[in-house]
Amino acid sequence: MKIKTFEEVPNNPVDMEGAVNVKMRLLLSQDDGADHFVMRMFEIAPGGHTPLHAHDWEHEIYVLEGQGIITLEGQEYSLTPGHVLLVPVGKEHQFKCTDPKLFRFLCIVPATAQG
Question: Which domains does the chain have, with CATH numbers?
Fold first, then answer.
């Protein structure tokens, strides 16, 4: 078993090309004994965004705080705390902070996911 608080986990800038004012905490991973999934917390500052990109894996998202949008396959959807969404395999997507405060969400991906 592994128990910790998110504040104990480093909050590292996302260095993916096209990312602006995005940080990520790797909350649970194989290093913690999570063999099948990785739990990440993304924090996007006001005006920030992830790059427009796609992956060879799905990911599940849970919005914790702030307001943002996801652009998925060219369509925009508003996101607020409590929203849960599935980003399917291979679908182009981007997250943007539309809040004057931090936009924070959990993202769960397979442990084999890269990027």
Answer: 10-99 (2.60.120.10)
